[in-house]
Give the backbone structure.
Amino acid sequence: MATKTQVIDIIHKVSAAIGENAQFLTDLDNAIGDGDHGINLARGFKKVEEELPAVADKDIGAILKKVGMTLVSTVGGASGPLYGTAFMKAGDAVKEKEEVTAEDFIAMLEAGIGGVQLRGKAEKGEKTMLDAMIPALDAMREAGTADAKAMLEAGLKAAKEGVEYTKTIIATKGRASYLGERSIGHQDPGASSFTVILETVANTV
Ligand code: ADP
Ligand code: MG
């Protein structure tokens, strides 16, 4: 699915996409949180870009681990540790690899979700990033790994549907949970940023 050079290229593109969507994501967080999601993530990925050259000769697992550690230390809020742990766990799933297959990508997402749940103790249906991540994983498993592009497209479609679903439910985790019923009608910022990331991967592979 992607060589190490392509993985590095994808990380740069993810960083650019988060930068382009920073205002959009922050506006979403303004509605049901504290309005920092996009700005914080963009700052984190900017730092990731600065750190990437120093680890470019390492394997994909180590590179993703570095991405995760950088996000933990620069993003802050709830999503910094959550995304950071997700990338670190995804890195663990592809230790010492110089190339990732579609099967590896499924293993990475599965590990990433495990990391988010370990840290955040949320389940599907609580109006968080998991409402995009878990359906994406399920859809990619269902699509199968024979055609990586088709697999990613299926995952992206499910993630987008997951974002739409977050509009219909009450937040029970994170800052948005303080709003109770008033969180209905708004899409979750974290589910939205995950979809931006997955869309970038799907468009690049
Ligand atoms: P904060 O809420 O601390 O300001 P951000 O604005 O960066 O953090 O991120 C908010 C996003 O984090 C939410 O939209 C949601 O997707 C995600 N989130 C918050 N708490 C959890 C949790 N316990 N598990 C999974 N995701 C969570
Ligand atoms: Mg916030």
The chain has one domain: 2-204. The chain has a mean pLDDT of 98. Strands lie at 2-3, 99-100.
